[in-house]
Amino acid sequence: MKLLFVSARSCTVLMDENSGFFLDLSRTFKLNGEPLDDERSYVRREEERNVFSIYGLWPDTEYTLEAFVKDEWESRITFRTEKEVVSLNVRRFGAKGDKQHDDTAAIQAAILSCPPGGRVLIPKGNYLTGPLFLKSHITIELKPDAALFLKTEREQFPVLPGMTRTTDEEGEVLLGSWEGNPLDAFASFITGIGVEDVKIIGPGVLDGQGHVGGWWVNPKIKKIAYRPRMFYLKDCKDITLQGITVRNSPAWNLHPTFSENLSFLNVTIEAPANSPNTDGFDPESCKHVRVYGTVFSVGDDCIALKAGKIYMGMKYHVPCEDIEIAWCCMLDGHGGVTVGSEMAGGVKNVRVHHCYMRGNDRGLRIKTRRGRGKYAVIDGIVFDHVRMEGVRCPLVVNAMYFCDPDGRTEYVQSREKQPVDDTTPTIGSIRFEQVEAENCEACAGYILGLPERPVGEITLKDCRFTFNPDGKAMAPAMAWNVEECKNRGLIAYFVDRLTLDHVTMEGVSGERVKATEVDTIIDEG
Amino acid sequence: MNAKAILRECREGNRFDGNLLKGCMAMYRAAGDGPFRDAVLEYLDKGVSSDGQLPALNAGEGLAGKISYGTALLFAWDETGEERYKAAAKQIREKYTELDRQILPDSAVRGTLHPYQPFVIGYDCRFGDKQSHKAAAKCFQCLRNHTFDKEKKLYQYKPALNPPIESAYDLRHNGGIFLSLADTIEQMDIQLYEHYRVLADLFLEAVRGLIPYRNKTGLFARDIINPDSEPDADGNRMVAYALFKGVRLGLLDEEKYLPMAQDLMITANLHFGVCVSMDYPGQLSFGLMAEAERMEVEKR
User: Fold this and answer.
1) N or C: which end of chain B has fewer CB within 10 A?
2) Which residues does chain B have within 8 Å of residue A179's beta carbon, measured at their own beta carbons?
């Protein structure tokens, strides 16, 4: 048992670092000698999750948590909660929590009034609010049965300007962001600009009301500004989200940018499968990010690691790096973990481990295109100990993704070798190790590099793929001339080195590896 | 101002017509004034057949006028959705592509392509694949590389390209570039931000370069670097138009540049008078355009 996080009022615990999202063995717990009840451990009411959180703790108090397997003592941790200066209840600031009154000002007042080390308490109730802005060195707690509902009238939303020139007109300040460019966007439900040391703890709910607010109608058309997200950070550090449920986002759910030391623990992210662009978690040009024990069920990619489009990449070249995603559960969605397609600053050192994916179109999905730029380097992507069920295509690498207004042009889509220049992206090493994928439908993997810059190295080690004979055919990659396929093995174009080491494919149709323009293939069974 | 009467006097397809059409379209957008819209559509009816043919395309004084004409066709398509306008615009777009191919290798003259960019981008955003954004950015960069004087911070009118004129630093030439940049930016898909930003930066650079040359009356001289020489009616209104538009599009800081634009407009009107006659088509069209932009930005 390992303590992952502690605040003044809550903690998050990892039970077994070698297990996946679910525990193999059921356990019971005692906190300071008393059985851990459902009220305290809200998350544990539903299933045996490996990462779980405990709420309702007292500040500056020592706790001992003990685990038992079939009444047999197994392990113990002892920890002390943080101190807390004051607790400010939003009700005392005038919030009604009846989903009728506009509680924006009351909650914002509580946040801005909260001294460092204080807590803003949002008790049981349904609060209707507009976007809220964070302040440094505070904790915001949404109690059980507390839900914030985002207002639906976009005319009442503040706009974050994409780019504002500095007063001397020599520089720029970027605030709003949309799909990798500095564009005017509505302030997000929870917005943090230049803040640090903030904790938002659950187990309450943030509901974006995307289905009510018209955000999902003609979603690609800018109306006043681009759509808000549920949680947006710019230039922040030391931020933790713990245990909250985020649902019905107007667009992407969690979107931290140019921020560092971020933790997302036991968060639940929900959006209907057909909701447009409701990516779960999209860190953009962030470093030192950890996502543990989080559940995704969304309408687009569950996680998408990003680093801007070419303007941002060439000007700032800040990669998304040192990312750890573990003990998470990704349900549905186009991709389980995606890199790109906005990745012009590079995406490096990513480890996804002990996760569970079910029903996604793709497991690991890497997407880029010509025009992302010389800093657009994807390297050091590792998937290990990942279990997939019914993921239609576990591995897709696509360097000709037909995104953006000009994505369906010859320049992006040509299979002919183009000159390597400052716009050419690079894909380095990608490793799948101990990945078990059952009931694949399209193919085990589809790799499409660039002829002028092939994918560096793809390694599959100790992996097992089985196929669903009743599955549907699918085009694994979104690019020109990618045909639908069903129950195929590994299909690769334009790769320097492809290694299969102890890889089994059961029920594969045709040859297990079909390689075109692959420099070196090592297939050791 | 009787827009129909003005446009009735126009010859088909010259550049004055194009600017007047632009002025009428801008007035319609700014004021929602039906007669300006009707005037544009009525004018186009004279030249566009029911199947979208443009008999005058190869006649007249060259492509410049046709391109402005093309912008009006896009306006007509937006307003009516009639296929013949799209078909006619396509013919002009293809003509442009032909021209582009002919003179692309000669980078020194690529600057002459810049007046066409608003139409090209506008066309491709509606009907094409938007590849033209990259070409537009390249075109303006090329123009800058070859004709921007980094010391004087002005675009030079290269005598090698045209019969020599009195000054290489011509206000109308610089004003024309302002117009092209602002009008092109307005047509762009901002999600192709890298190209949009190239133009936005060039626009700001050009504006910042010109501003110090205002003379004590508050106007710019035709020969920019001799501020006390004769001011120019067309050129000053072109600049006013670009400043207003730059503010409206968020390219220029409103607090800094809007008063400048307003002052320039008022001063120009006082100095030259408000033109309502086709005897001075430049003054008329640029006056209309500037007035429309003033109305748009001030009504926000």
Assistant:
1) C
2) 191
Helical pair B117-127 and B63-80, crossing angle rounded to 10 deg: 40
Q: What is the CATH number of domain B106-300?
A: 1.50.10.10
Inter-residue contact A20 to A383 (CB < 8 Å):
no
Q: Shortest CA distance to A228 belongs to which of A123, A151, A300, A163?
A: A151
Distance from CA of B194 to the nearest CA of A (A): 5
Is residue A334 part of the annotated active site? The answer reads yes
CB contact, 8 Å: A409 with chain B? yes
DSSP for A2-63?
A: EEEEE-SS-EEEES-TTS-SB-SS--EEEETTEE--TTT-GGGGTS-BSEEEE--PPTT-EE
Which residues numbered 141-170 in A keep a CB inside 8 Å of some CB on B?
161, 165, 169
CB contacts of A311 in chain B (<8 Å) are 193-194, 197
- pLDDT tens, per residue, chain A with 525 residues: 999 999 999 999 999 999 999 988 888 899 999 988 766 665 454 458 999 999 999 999 999 999 998 889 999 999 999 999 999 999 999 999 999 999 999 999 999 999 999 999 999 999 999 999 999 999 999 999 999 999 999 999 999 999 999 999 999 999 999 999 999 999 999 999 999 999 999 899 999 999 998 899 999 889 999 999 999 999 999 999 999 999 999 999 999 999 999 999 999 999 999 999 999 999 999 999 999 999 999 999 999 999 999 999 999 999 999 999 999 999 988 999 999 999 999 999 999 999 999 999 999 999 999 999 999 999 999 999 999 999 999 999 999 998 888 888 888 999 999 999 999 999 999 999 999 999 999 999 999 999 999 999 999 999 999 999 999 999 999 999 999 999 999 999 999 999 999 999 999 999 999 999 999 999 987
Catalytic member of A255, A279, A332, A334: A334
Contacts of A411 in chain B (CB under 8 A): 131
**Superfamily for domain range A307-525:** Single-stranded right-handed beta-helix, Pectin lyase-like (2.160.20.10)
The CATH number of domain A2-80, selected from 3.90.75, 1.10.8, 2.60.40, 2.40.50:
2.60.40
Domains A2-80 and A85-300 share a fold: no
CB B191 within 8 A of CB A404: yes
* Complex-level ipTM: 0.90
Q: What is the spatial distance between Cα A180 and Cα A279, in angstroms, rounded to a whole number? A: 14
Q: Do A311 and B193 touch (CB under 8 A)?
A: yes
Q: Tell me if residue A385 is catalytic.
A: no
Helix, strand or coil, per DSSP, at residue B259: helix
Q: Which fold has domain A85-300?
A: Pectate Lyase C-like (2.160.20)
Enumerate the domain spans of chain B.
Answer: 1-103, 106-300
CA distance A130 to chain B (A): 24
Q: Is the N-terminal amide bond of A249 cis, ω within 30° of 0?
A: no
Domain coordinates of chain A in residue numbers? 2-80, 85-300, 307-525
- The answer to whether A127 touches A95, Cβ cutoff 8 Å, is yes
- Tell which A residues from 270 to 329 touch B, by Cβ distance under 8 Å: 309-311, 314
Contact residues on chain B for A406, CB-CB shorter than 8 A? 129-131, 133-134, 192
A80 reaches B (C-beta below 8 A): no
User: Residue A181 and residue B253: Cβ atoms within 8 Å?
Assistant: no
> In this predicted model, what pLDDT tens digit does every residue of A145-166 receive, in sequence order?
999 999 999 999 999 999 999 9
Query: Which residue, among A487, A486, A489, A482, has the nearest Cα to A514 in the 3D structure?
Result: A489
- pLDDT grade, residue B105 (50/70/90)? very low
Q: How far apart are CA A194 and CA A201, in angstroms?
A: 20
Distance of residue B108 Cα from the nearest chain A Cα, in angstroms? 24
Residue of A nearest to B190 (CA): A183
CB contact under 8 A, A406 and B208: no
Contacts with B128 from chain A: Cβ below 8 Å: none
| Three-state secondary-structure class, residue A197 | strand
